[in-house]
Write a structure and sequence with these properties.
mainly alpha, about 75% helix, globular
Length: about 100
């Protein structure tokens, strides 16, 4: 199942303006969702002078991260998966802050 298909089958519908931003390719795996969140954060960082576009990129990153947590919570090894999400998220921001 693709990321888009997985998002579309959630009980709560994503608002259309945000759903149009959630276009990541690939299978709906924890890795793919985290990669999509990181990609949107990169987009957000590059749009510092474009408030609205940066806001939508940040919302998309947050959505992908939230979906990664949801995916992890629903699977086996939930604790390990959530630790990996935290490690990867914190590590990414730490590296950016040091740059």
């Amino acid at each position: 199942m693709t990321i888009g298909e997985w998002i579309d089958q959630r009980d709560r519908r994503v608002p259309a303006a945000l759903r149009s931003r959630l276009r990541a390719d690939g299978t709906a795996t924890l890795e793919a969702l985290l990669s999509a969140a990181e990609a949107e954060l990169e987009v957000c960082a590059g749009l510092a002078n474009q408030d609205r576009a940066a806001a939508f990129a940040l919302l998309a990153a947050d959505a992908y991260l939230t979906y990664a947590c949801l995916r992890a919570a629903a699977g086996r090894g939930c604790g390990d998966a959530l630790r990996e999400i935290t490690r990867r998220t914190a590590g990414g921001w730490s590296a950016r802050a040091e740059a």
